[in-house]
Specification:
CATH class: Alpha Beta
CATH superfamily: Ribonuclease Z/Hydroxyacylglutathione hydrolase-like
Strand content: 15-25%
Distance between the termini: 31 Å
Strand order of the largest sheet: 1-2-3-4-5-6-7
Number of helices: 11
Structural class: alpha/beta
Order of helices and strands: EEEEHEHHEHHHHEEEEEHEHHHEE
Number of domains: 1
Protein name: Metallo-beta-lactamase domain-containing protein
Number of strands: 14
Helix content: 25-40%
Bound molecules: zinc ion
Pfam family, one: Lactamase_B
Length: 341
């Protein structure tokens, strides 16, 4: 079942990396490069060219800085305010650069701001024992843990140092830009306090990573909060968005193309996770470790490059089954085993 068959993508033009496309007098679609298989991010410049509010910024890389500098000059754009949807490097990476070099304001949710400051502060530190225990309990091998240790702190390396102060935005807050009201709508599960922005008047919804047309966002667990239940948070957020958004809203996602069919997509995402939970429950008729259920949850091959994400996502679904009273876990010789309750 391909989501592409069911959603509509009404905007024909897709801006090339480093360039932009004017959707209407209030919204400009900017694309910036990412050095991964997911090779782009969409950013949204709202308002008039001489007074723009930028929603999300791009990853802090030389390529992005060069592209931004060229774009601001060639299109004669002036960015005065920066808002980010959440703390991931592709979204927040350049925020500090804009504040420093363009004297912009900087707004985001409190939880994501604090968590981002905390995670970037880890860069250069030793890996905490809690994290090694966490991945050992999940069933990772010594070689895999070694490879994790080598990459520890990478997060901070692709984010420009964050400003030491920010403006807090929270669920329901209205930001008026160029006479248009944008309402912050909080989502959970991908990060702790992800903000999306809905303009009733324009019938447009800047969704960040909370609602994407073709890929399902990462919903998983990290060593800082091993007992978290982000899958339930994510499913609840999908239901919430169905109640907030009209079906004919134009969704402006961070990855992929603007689309129509918000409710269809949200229902498909809910379904996707519920089906995964059911399959996972069935697989737990025999005790399994987190690393034993990858084939139940993922179609793609899991290797060193996506092992941490996959482990986090499988733990997320296992925790959800535990919280629903459907599974138990026990620790034997430092490794967690899960089975049906
Ligand atoms: Zn994200
Ligand atoms: Zn993203």
């Amino acid at each position: 079942m391909s989501a592409d068959n069911r959603l509509e993508f009404p905007i024909e033009t897709v801006p090339k990396s480093g360039s932009s496309y004017v959707i209407n007098e209030h919204v400009r679609w900017v694309r910036m490069p990412l050095p991964m298989s997911l090779n782009h991010i969409n950013l949204w410049a709202l308002g008039s060219n001489d007074n723009l509010t930028l929603v999300d910024t791009g990853m802090h890389l030389d390529d992005t800085k060069t592209a931004w500098t060229a774009l601001l000059t060639s299109e004669n754009l002036s960015i005065n305010d920066v808002i980010v949807t959440h703390m991931h490097p592709d979204h927040i990476g350049m925020a500090g650069w804009f504040v420093k070099n363009h004297k912009t304001s900087f707004s985001m949710s409190r939880t994501d701001y604090l968590q981002c400051r905390m995670l970037s502060a880890d860069t250069g530190d030793d890996v905490p024992n809690d994290a090694i225990d966490f991945y050992t309990q999940a069933g990772m091998t010594l070689a895999q843990i070694d490879s994790y240790i080598k990459r520890f702190g990478f997060f901070g390396s692709i984010i420009h140092p964050l400003p030491h102060s920010y403006n807090r935005l929270k669920d329901g807050d209205i930001t008026t830009i160029n006479g248009m009201e944008w309402q912050a709508v909080e989502g959970r599960g991908h990060t702790m306090e992800h903000l999306c922005f809905f303009s009733k008047e324009l019938n447009m919804f800047i969704s960040g990573d909370q609602l994407l047309p073709t890929i399902s966002s990462h919903v998983g667990i990290f060593p800082t909060e091993p007992e978290a239940n982000p899958v339930e948070d994510w499913i609840a957020s999908c239901h919430k968005l169905i109640s907030v958004l009209p079906e004919d809203v134009l969704v402006l996602p961070a990855h992929g193309r603007p689309f129509l069919g918000a409710h269809k997509r949200l229902n498909a995402l809910i379904q996707h996770h519920e089906v995964s939970l059911q399959k996972l429950y069935d697989a737990l008729s025999e005790p399994k470790r987190s690393v034993d259920v990858f084939n139940v949850l993922f179609k793609r091959e899991i290797d060193d490059s996506n092992l941490i994400m996959a482990t986090g996502e499988s733990l997320g679904h296992l925790n959800c089954l535990i919280k629903r009273g459907l599974a138990n876990k026990h620790i034997a010789e430092g490794v967690c085993w899960y089975e049906q309750a």
